[in-house]
Structures are given as C-alpha cells and as structure tokens.
Amino acid sequence: MEIRFKDQTILITGSASGIGKGIATEFAASGGNVVIADLNEAGAQTTADELAREHGVQTMAVRVDVTSKAECQAMAGKVMGRFGRIDCLVNNAGVTLSYPIEDFPEDKWDLTMAINLKGYFLITQAVVPRMKAGGRGGSIVNIASKTGLRGSAANSAYSASKGGVVIMTQGWAREFAPEGIRVNSVCPGNVLHGSGNWSDELKRSYAVKLGITVGEVEQHYINQVPLKRPCTVEDVANLVVFLSSDKASYITGCWHLVDGGQEMR
Fold first, then answer.
1. Domain for residue 199, yes or no?
2. Which of 120, 158, 206, 221 is catalytic?
3. Nearby residues of 135 by Cβ (< 8 Å), 6 or more positions away
4. For 42-98, how does the pLDDT look when each residue is reduced to its tens digit (9 = 90+)?
5. Which domain holds residue 31?
6. CATH of the domain at 27
7. Which of 25, 60, 91, 106 could bridge across to 120 with cysteines, CB 3.0–4.6 Å?
8. Is residue 2 part of a domain?
9. Residues 240 and 90: beta-carbon distance below 8 Å
10. Is 180 contained in some domain?
C-alpha cells in the first residue's frame, strides 16, 4: 500500500528533532512538501535541509513558539506565502515534566498546559481557516499519549494535557467535518529512544517513584508491553502518515494507540 503526498503541504510542529522529525521524514519519503516548525530555528533549518537533500522534496523551516498566538498566526501566513496551501497539520510540539503533586511547581504545570494543550489550540486556530479556504478538506493529527487515557503517577500535568488533547480532537472532528477536515489523535506508548521526552531528569524522577535504579527504568517499562519492545519513532510516524492519507478518508474523531498492546483491556 503506497501512500503519496505529491503536491501536498504538511506542517509538523516540534519537528526539528525527536518524534516530530521522524514524522516529517516519513512525509518527505512519501513525496510531500514538509514544513519543519520548531522553537529551535537552527535545528529546524538543519532538518529541513536534510530532508530536501535526501528525499528531493520541497521543505521549509520556520521558527514558532506555539504558546504565542501572534507567532502561530505569522507562521501559518509564511507557509501559505511559500506553498499556497496547507493540507495536513501534525500537532506534535510538547514537553514532559514529572513531579509528585505536592512538589509540582506551579510554573511547570502552567508551562506543560501552555505547550501541550494551548499550543495545539493556537496552531490549529491559525491553520484551519487556511485549510477551509483551499476547499480541499484536510487532515489534522494531534499527538497525545497513552498516559492521556489512563493517567500516570507523579505525571499529572502531562496526563491532564494529553487527556485534554484526546477530547479536544473529538470536538474538532465534529466541528470541521462539514469542510472535509478530519481530526484524529495518536497515543504512543513509551518511546524510550529518539523522542526527546525521556530525558535523564525524567528517568531519575521515575526511578525515585518506582524505587529502582535509573538503569532499570527502561526495562521496567518494556516489561509492561506484550510485544516486549519499546515504541519507536517510526511506529508513531507510520500511523500518523496513514491517518493523514486518503487511505484513512473515513476515519475521524478517533484516538489510536500505538503501544505494543500495553493498554489492552
């Protein structure tokens, strides 16, 4: 099943590195024009140049702070100025900050919500009018998390933000359906390598929470997965690309786990 995005423009936030870069890579390999939107402008340019060179597609790097309405609007305008269309949006920019609730700094809670939840809202608010104006419909994929479905101890801000993304996705799917814009969310399992979320600081906090060593954290989470391996960046990217394609033209308003069976009930 070949999926192609020739002449389509795909905008991915937080795509200079990590999961976002993996998603951008899959879209580029499928022939799409790829916009690398990230707070790290230099990193975004490096990734854009790399994808253009390796896949022969048009790319664009643009700096954006997803917590700023003005920057989100300006970024969408720049993309339209370059490509004249936005066909697919992937909301991916995020942060993972883990603290026990009694020790959770208020500013860290606010930052998590501003990036993981409000950021998705602001980017989508900027992009959707441009999608509607094109009259071709489109696709929005929001990167959520399995933690947004079940919650996680000492991870309440992240869980709440990702749970909000799942419900927000369903609301948008209903709202945008008349214009042919589909909206889905993807809920990855533990992407232990390559995501950027599993920082040394996060691993240390989980080690304390679980009463194990930092070196044992990864295996602890792998042991919870029926398929006995961690989720990879490619696992997430493959699902995002499928959901954004015409092959998924009758799928909207759904959350999709990619977790190796960890959340099976």
1. no
2. 158
3. none
4. 999 999 999 999 999 999 999 999 999 999 999 999 999 999 999 999 999 999 998
5. 9-191+232-258
6. 3.40.50.720
7. 91
8. no
9. yes
10. yes
* Close Cβ partners of 163 (under 8 Å, ≥ 6 residues apart): 144, 148, 149, 151
**Mean pLDDT score, 201-222:** 85
Active site residue 250: no
Number of independent structural domains in the chain: 1
Q: How many CA atoms lie within 13 A of 158 on its CB side?
A: 23
Please enumerate in sequence order all residues whose Cβ is within 8 A of that of 70, keeping only pairs 6 or more positions apart, or say none. Answer: none
Digit-coded pLDDT (tens) for 117-176: 999 999 999 999 999 999 999 999 999 999 999 988 778 999 999 999 999 999 999 999
pLDDT tops 90 at residue 264: no
Mean pLDDT of the chain: 95
